[in-house]
Structure formats: structure tokens, C-alpha cells
Amino acid sequence: MTNLEVTSSAPAEPGGGLAPLWGDCARMAPHWAAPQRAASRPVSPSRIHGVSVPARSARLLDAMSDYGD
To answer: How many CA atoms lie within 13 A of 56 on its CB side?
Structure first.
């Protein structure tokens, strides 16, 4: 049988504050490579199209109070 024990350095309580989160981010930052900054170019208006949303998704968003009210 496989041992599925998981250990975590996250705070035990949700209100642990931002200090543990900042520490975790500082430890992980060296592992993340920043992508080269790409120069943004203007987009021709002829390439800009409307957004189409399936009716089922639109009904779902309309029923959510955060979006529909």
C-alpha cells in the first residue's frame, strides 16, 4: 500500500496572515523564470470580433447575482 501522507508548510488556520504567504512566495520566486517581455503591437480593427457566448453559459451567468444584478 502506498503511503499518502501529505505535509504542508501552509498555516493551519485560514487567518494566518500574509507573512507566511510572502515567505512561501519568496522561496518559490527563484524557481520561476520570467518570460522575455514581448513588445505589444496595435491590432487592426478588422481583426477584432465580438465575443460569442453559448446560450447555456449566458443563462448561467445571468442567474448569478454577482454578474446579473
So the answer is: 0
**Helices H / strands E in the chain, number of each:** 3, 0
Q: How far apart are CA 16 and CA 55, in angstroms?
A: 42
Give this prediction's pTM: 0.29
For residue 31, how many other CB atoms are within 10 A of its CB?
Answer: 6
At residue 7, the pLDDT reads: 59
Residues with Cβ within 8 Å of residue 9, at least 6 apart in sequence: 20, 24
Residue listed under C-alpha cell 502506498: 2
pLDDT tens, position by position, 9-46? 554 556 677 888 888 888 888 888 877 887 888 888 88
For the record, the C-alpha cell of 49 comes out as: 470580433
